[in-house]
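User: Fold this; tokens only.

Assistant: Input:
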Amino acid sequence: MNEGVPVAMADYRIETVRNGYRQWTARNDRGAEVRMGAADDPDAQPSFTPVELLLAAMGGCGGMVVDRTARAVEHEDLKIVVESVSGPEDDGRVGRIRVSYEFELPESNPRAAEVFARGVRLTHEKFCTVSRTVEHGAAVEAVLPDGTVGFRAG
């Protein structure tokens, strides 16, 4: 069925169900839901596109990790903006992602900029699973209804 590839227990599991043409809802086992749809479909709004969810995951993961890696710097007002830029040469993929950490560094801490920069670097180099997966890639396997692998990459 799975062409000899062992199936490991999932670290994360999301079910994505179809609600209508180009309208989907993703659910986790804890009961959270997020709507996905095409940006140009007014019937699918409000919703996120799949790429927007990828960018949101990078911002959310980065923020949760920065809460630990830069905890010595007060950053209550931190806003993380994640933007993507793609061109024809990117062949249907996101070409570049920019993650901007926006807030006022506290003047009361003379080392705030250095400490925060180290926290952000550690976030992307070591601790943010989403960012590191995007940066380095992951193996992808698509399993068909009959259990065979219809696509594999990485």
